[in-house]
Amino acid sequence: MSRRTSRPRGPAAARITPASPCPCGLPAAYGECCGRFHPGSAAAPTCEALMRSRYAAFVVQDAAYLLRTWHPGTRPPGVDFDPAMRWTGLDILETTEGSAFHSTGTVTFRAHYTDDGRPDSLHEKSRFVRHEGAWVYTTAVFVD
Q: The pTM is what?
């Protein structure tokens, strides 16, 4: 996801613990699912797993992980979080390539959120490549 804002970080990150359901929507605890990638000790094995973990990083407001998993050629200098925005769900709509046997892949998804309490969604097709052996986010095309 490529949403960036200029507002300061909000308090939403404190609500997710390792035992919480993973925000990405898979039936696992955050610490066993996407949370295991966030410290950097393990890498997402597929571009879909990276997409899910990046979505979860937006939920928990982990700017370091988002920047670390962004291709250096397209990485912004920083990520700011909008305190009025709450990510509420992720639907993976399509994945092309992006497995252990590929060097590129795409993930089309719809990420649901509320902004000042108003529901909305982000429909995006994200592109991923392998960089120095790990999957990284490069660019996106907004579908809607």
A: 0.89
